[in-house]
Design a protein that fits this description.
The chain is α/β, with parallel strands linked by helices and 300 residues long. It is built from 11 helices and 12 strands. It has 2 domains: 130 residues, Rossmann fold, CATH 3.40.50.10280; 158 residues, NAD(P)-binding Rossmann-like Domain (Rossmann fold). The strands form 2 sheets. Strands 7-6-5-8-9-11-10 form a 7-stranded mixed β-sheet, with helices on both faces. The longest helix has 21 residues. The protein is elongated. The two termini are 38 Å apart.
């Protein structure tokens, strides 16, 4: 009798994400097992419970998904799971806390595509700002952009110390080169964006971070990307379906809207989940794998 495919969903939060559960079922996993309040130090035991219960053939139909809200914790859990494998008892693992890895990967890949297409530039040629940069999607966006070569700054609304502390933490973790700063008032934002090439907006939904007046001061702005689909847009003038449309209130910039990003994010997560069932060897998937898959999807 053929083994059924099983996805074990480990989440350190009080509940698993319904979005991720839906995605997993749409990727043809036969059964889902969800676990909430999973402590990072329990990953070794739980991973070995997963791998030793199905035999060498069964592990090919078994995978682990790691959720949560803290991207550092998710990476730690991914690494712990990987170290707990005992070949040939190995299963694939995907970490995507709060969808942060796949969302950030889609956002940066979409902006990068427009940057190349419209301006013949690469991320390494640019200064990038991440507004809402201290949340999970913002941090992941900053890390991906920085590792791709952009001079990247995480921007927080309330605390420069918090932004800089997170930048330093993730620089240590991933060998990137983030900085952090604060922008509470329009004057702060104007000063920041005057020489910015790229702006990523990953701030709280339903709050406009950059007004038309602020944007008018961005003299070398090329591409903006906004993940906020709840009106008003995080960046004035960005429409939900924009993908390279001219951005009002600026000289030459173009916009990538939240539904364009969301469409790519959906395809990325679907592809990564599916890949855990189709490959001959186990895969360990994080934001780097998500970014590579997003670029592949956009270039196909």
């Amino acid at each position: 009798m053929a083994k059924r495919s099983i996805l074990h969903m480990f989440d350190p939060m009080p509940n698993n994400s319904p979005f991720d559960v839906n995605m997993a079922l749409d990727c043809d996993f036969d059964a889902l097992a969800t676990y909430a309040n999973v402590k990072p130090d329990s990953m070794h035991r739980m991973t070995q419970d997963v791998i030793f219960s199905r035999g060498p053939k069964g592990v090919k139909q078994t995978a682990i998904f790691i959720g949560g809200r803290d991207i550092g914790v998710a990476i730690d859990m991914l690494n712990s799971a990987k170290k707990s494998m005992v070949p040939p008892f190995e299963v694939s693992v995907l970490a995507d806390p709060s969808g942060a890895f796949t969302t950030a990967a889609a956002l940066v890949a979409c902006v990068e595509k427009e940057l190349k297409t419209k301006f013949n530039k690469q991320l390494k040629d640019c200064k990038a700002l991440v507004f809402g940069g201290t949340g999970p999607v913002g941090i992941a966006t900053g890390v991906i952009a920085s590792l791709a070569g952009a001079k990247t700054c995480l921007v927080d609304h309330f605390s420069s110390d918090a932004a800089q502390s997170l930048a330093e933490e993730y620089n240590r973790r991933f060998k990137c080169n983030l900085s952090g700063t604060i922008a509470t008032f329009d004057e702060d934002k104007i000063q920041l964006i005057e020489d910015a090439d790229l702006i990523f907006c990953t701030a709280k939904a339903g709050i406009q971070i950059l007004s038309a007046e602020v944007l008018s001061h961005a003299k070398q702005l090329k591409v903006v990307g906004d993940v906020n689909a709840v009106p008003p847009s995080g960046i004035a003038g960005v429409q939900v379906n924009d993908f390279g449309a001219p951005l009002a209130h600026t000289e030459n910039a173009v916009a990538v809207g939240p539904l364009a990003v969301g469409n790519v994010k959906y395809k990325v997560q679907h592809a990564l989940l599916s890949s855990m069932l189709t490959g001959e060897k186990p895969v360990y998937l994080d934001f780097i794998a998500a970014f590579e898959k997003a670029k592949e999807i956009l270039n196909s």
